[in-house]
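Minimal example, chain plus flavin-adenine dinucleotide.
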Amino acid sequence: MNNRTQPPRMRVAVVGGGIMGVTLAYKLSQRDDLDITIYERGGNLGGLAAFMWYDGVRMDRFYHTILSSDLSMQALIQESGVADRLHFTETKQGFFDSGQIYPFNTPIDLMTYPPLNIFQRFRLGLQVLYAQLESDWRKMDNVSVEDWLVKVSGRAVYEKVWKPLLRAKFDTAFTDVPATYIWSRLKRMMGTRQGVTSKEMMCFLENGYYTLIEAMAEQCVQRGVTICVDTAIEQIVIENGRAVGVRTPDGLQPFDVVISTLVSPLLAKLIPDAPEAFQRQLAEQEYLGVLCPVLILKQQLIPYYVLNITDETIPFTGVVETTNLIDPKYVKNYHLVYLPKYVAPDNPMYQWPDDQVKNEWMKHFLKMFPDFDESQIVDFIVQRARYVEPIRPLGTTDQIPHLKTPVEGLYMGNTAMIHPDLGNGDAAARFAYRIIDQVLADLPAWTPQPVPVA
Ligand SMILES: Cc1cc2nc3c(=O)[nH]c(=O)nc-3n(C[C@H](O)[C@H](O)[C@H](O)COP(=O)(O)OP(=O)(O)OC[C@H]3O[C@@H](n4cnc5c(N)ncnc54)[C@H](O)[C@@H]3O)c2cc1C
């Protein structure tokens, strides 16, 4: 076909190279009428699901599991050709309460959980069942999570079990959280349970989530997608209410469609020419950050994937030993223990230097595990991210921005828009599909735009 008869290809910029951005480019590149470029600020693709190199192996920077119920993610893994590197494992969890560790996996564990009396255990079980039976999330969207949990579980169970779990995810910012959050979480977690024994099955990808991202990125490149890492978008250029390109350190790059996968406050900074109300709406979206040290050990610490901590004096809120899911042979036989703390936007802890985090964390870690032999520690690496868990106060669902923004040709997606599902890799991939449906639905109306002058 010569140039005169070749139809113009629509130029698409995908801003952000996390799971959502790479899934978008991967799926869109299956068409041959699009010219796609991914822009990623970091040195590698992956975003929150990126990796860290340690002793010559790639490990998840933050702990990541794929649940057996994450079917979209598993389909993507299959399609991108890395299914042979996906492994299912039975995992276990426990609770750390008043200096003791208790298993918390089966109905028997629940019915014999020592920190609660028999009546309280029954109410806790009832809450889990109640969440499974409820299918209309809208009923819970205007009820505070505390009210919903106290109503069914009772105050004592709320204080002993639910509040520590909420604190683990929201720091102090959970008073205003709708019940939808815990309902979604219970649904998601129960989806991993198999059979009458309630075994919890999770999966991991050899060398982490990045294995999938890398496979998708390689196929993107084969199909002609341009991937620019180390390239922060400085501005999304808007002219006459329409996105016409992006500004990089190399100048203006013209595009017909721009899809942002950035968290809302970061996108707000890039669109000075968008309607002011829209900029404000994005800028006001609050997020918790995470401080997440990784303890690299020579031996296993606990037999659980996650140990939930109910003691509020301990700065981290869980002990996540991912090598109880991941076979240690994939990480040079190290044992990886993540000690996360989600931090509210006003919590000064987020700014603590690594040494201060290490001292404070280890002080409490050694109190929790008094028999721990410190010679087992190989390393202590502090990872952190500022925008992780969106805070969506009660009754604000109608303020979630639409993926088709008020700026023509500008689409957006991020975890604050995923509702009532939780923000995770599976949901991010599904949200990417929704954006694609919208972009393609708008395609017939698309006409080539004049190239703007830099
Ligand atoms: C501690 C922790 C544990 C988690 N555990 C799990 C788990 O077990 N299972 C699971 O499924 N999910 C888990 N998640 C959630 C999962 O990581 C996220 O839902 C997912 O990675 C979000 O992907 P995303 O593409 O939407 O966003 P991001 O990963 O945030 O990607 C956005 C990208 O945009 C880039 N960017 C920002 N500004 C610019 C700019 N100006 N120009 C260009 N690029 C820019 C960023 O660098 C980033 O790479 C966890 C997250 C954390 C923090």
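The pocket of flavin-adenine dinucleotide is lined by residues 15-21, 39-42, 47-49, 62-65, 232-233, 261-262, 266, 290, 292, 340, 385, 388, 414-415, 423-426, 428 (CB under 6 Å). The chain has three domains: 10-88+207-285+394-445, 104-193, 287-391.
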